[in-house]
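pasting for the record
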Amino acid sequence: MFFVNGKVQFSGSFINGKKNGIWKYFNDKGITIIEGEYEMDKPVNLWTIKDKKGKKITTQYDYTNSKYILNEVEEKLKGSTLLGGLSLSYDLFIQNAEVPRDFWDTYADLKYLAKFKIEENSSSTFILDEVNEKTANNTITFGSSVQTDPESKLHKIDHSKLSKKLLYYKISEALSVLPPWIYKGEKETTIYIPYKVNVR
């Protein structure tokens, strides 16, 4: 994935569909803001997160010993949490959940629920479903609202199954590259995603 200016957003590799090796996330200037390592989807060793400018370390978590070395981010979840906090993860999600071209000059008001399963070794998997409404009160919300064109250029259409499937894959992709979870006794959590395009 790339920023609008052509800079790489993150780098990492997969083996048989599992994250493996060193993963790095960059800001739009090309400076590393997150760095850590996976072994077949399991976060390992020391993970480091810097501020948005990439100058100051704000979080360091040692997955080998399951403890923070440094944590300047306020934790908002009582159970398992995303490394670096919800604000950082939300920003990364919005940055990576690009609007497919099929939706640019139309309206869309879709809702998704991502159900994460977090293992004791902090590896995680998720299932993403389209839903009619938010189904639980204790979920995290990653709302996305985008205005692409003036109203005079928009068209009301019923999106095809293929267009919706493409959006589903874009959201799944953005969720799959979030920072790793930190297991804290809670094996399941959900993220509610209201996805609005040109809807006020």
